[in-house]
């Protein structure tokens, strides 16, 4: 695989490059049957095709999946003519931006026409114009490690911006000046933080400087695009790294201002912990509690990670210095839940996701009333009922929220929560807590009381649910007697 300068990809100036190149050869051999077949079809139609961007980067890192990105000099309408007879499925969702998607066997493929795109300073959408050369296409890419290509089917390696060296050095630079790159698409500033978190790379100093000086440009980017980048960062292997970069450059002040606001000034007696660092630690500990990717339902959990990141955002608004010298944050979980809902709504998250994360934020302190097991069975039932389907996530968030360096205190909290989980498990086995309902349903209530549908039935149902939570299951006769006794008191 020669590169644009006719140097063999397997000839290496350093051991690191040699290892990178061997990985690339292995990965490209795996996808060659599909990639070469598609490339021949483009060549027969008079066009060129190259594997590009993240696909080349991931091949060099030995992590190329089944999502393949290609670039071509063919216009979108010509790409459609080529791939339709060949692919198992074709979609045109991105065709306005020059991208045609298709599926072939196990591979999801995107083919994008050479292009350049830039933002009007008052527009939220990029203006797309097509280019005529792969060099023109690569210079508009976000970072040098994403500005490499492999021309097919001859497998010529094209690296005009020394992306291979930056990949070996694990550093993020821009093909041109970072100012030009971020002016073209301000979202690239967030991508720098995202790739730092995903790849565990360092961001070049001149790139960090440009991010800091130009962070205000992010205001023209739509909330949906910002949210999607933020999600990718949060779901990465090293979210702390990316989040710190957002905070340090000022980008977080625009995207998630509640995060830098956690850097509360500590009084001279250090009577409360650094909430910002605590939050990042809680996030890391929550990540460590996620089930492995190869287990059912395992892998990165966006709901849990967002809840860990936002669980204390109510503290700045509720901080009080008490007369006895203590610092308090009374009801910060309630305030934080409202702030979480507002911020996530502004970032265009789904209503379901907003509801789930807000609930976890609101409930994250509930366990601290448990003490050493003083809760009654009724209190345990209410804990389970209030958490609902978020119970397992609440377990993980509560455990993650312990960041004390006092091992005795940490062990005591862990044992107490072990005890709570054991009690929940026993009650669930005995009472089916996950589907807790009153011992009488609405139809039975109407029949027993001799009333039709109306507000009285709702009140009676709520009363029976309270009795169920307080006392556990009752027999049918006991439930009927309790309902009649309550009804008589209402009359």
Automatic annotation (TrEMBL):
Keywords: Magnesium, Metal-binding, Nucleotide-binding, Nucleotidyltransferase, Transferase, tRNA processing. Residues 275-436 form the HD domain. Pfam families: HD (PF01966), PolyA_pol (PF01743), PolyA_pol_RNAbd (PF12627). The keyword DNA-binding does not apply. The keyword Nucleotide-binding applies. Its EC number is 2.7.7.72. This is CCA tRNA nucleotidyltransferase. Its cofactor is Mg(2+). One of its GO terms (biological process) is tRNA processing. GO terms for molecular function: CCA tRNA nucleotidyltransferase activity; metal ion binding; nucleotide binding; tRNA binding. CDD domains: HDc, NT_ClassII-CCAase. It is an enzyme of class 2 (transferase).
